[in-house]
Amino acid sequence: MALSDFSQKKIGWIGTGRMGFAMVKRLLEKGADVSVWNRTTAKALPLAEQGATIVQKPSDLADHDIVFTMVGGPVDFVEVTLGSDGVLSQDKKPRMLIDSTSIDEEASAKVRLSANKNGVSMLAAPVSGNAKVVKAGKLTFVVSGPENAYIEAQPYLDVIGRGSYYVGEGELSRFIKICHNVFLGVVIQNMVEITVLAEKAGVPRHAFLDFLNNSVMGSMFSKYKSPALVNLDYTVTFTPELLLK
After folding, report:
1. Contact by Cβ (8 Å): 12, 44
2. Is the pTM of this model over 0.85?
3. What is the rounded distance in angstroms from the CA atom of residue 39 to the CA atom of residue 114?
């Protein structure tokens, strides 16, 4: 897609927390026409300096071509789409809704049913990565929904991250996200436990993790997490509450 085509569609964005803010910023850097809403307006204001239009409620985005949602959880997602000020509750509807929130299949299916009844294509597009990963351009999407909608949305997904993976219709991507989060939790717990085990035996943390990362067991994730384990950096990037969600 040429940059001129990329900027022709009106993009709406609901939710500019840590993840949403970084994702919108990448779209703006590529010249996309983006309008944003966030419950706390002040958190979205810095995006206006980069070219975003700030709106007062989700319903203000109903006339846009594509609306992304990246909110706290299933209750928030249903509210910003089907609530009284929801983007799908107006006479005018967006052509496409893309949700990247980590939510259950039931909430997703509820909104998809309403979208389908109103002629709105909906893609479930949960992500792998945190805000730092977004800034580095390494975010990945797993997507389910109408394939023709995915093809249209793919250039925007690819600009936000480093790739997207279409897995089929309906809520399949939600199930994959659940599998992903279970694996994430298990891997980091194991990394912490085996690092402590090695340290108790007298092996420095950095030496053990350097060996691990250069062995067959090393991965992008283990290498990314190793500095935090070596330096005992407990800065939160993802909470147990979000993991369990």
Report:
1. no
2. yes
3. 23
CB 57 within 8 A of CB 36: no
Each residue of 159-215: pLDDT tens digit? 999 999 999 999 999 999 999 989 988 999 999 999 999 999 999 999 999 999 999
Q: Are 139 and 167 spatial neighbours (Cβ–Cβ below 8 Å)?
A: no
C-alpha–C-alpha distance, residues 110 and 169, integer Å = 15
* Contact predicate 68/11, CB 8 Å: yes
Alpha carbon separation from 30 to 3, 24, 50, 175 (Å, rounded): 8, 10, 11, 31
Tokens of 138: 């390494």
Orientation angle between helical segments 18-29 and 41-48, nearest 10 degrees: 20
In Å, how far are 63, 92, 235 from 77, measured between CA atoms? 19, 19, 27
Residue 3: CA count within 13 A, CB half-sphere:
5
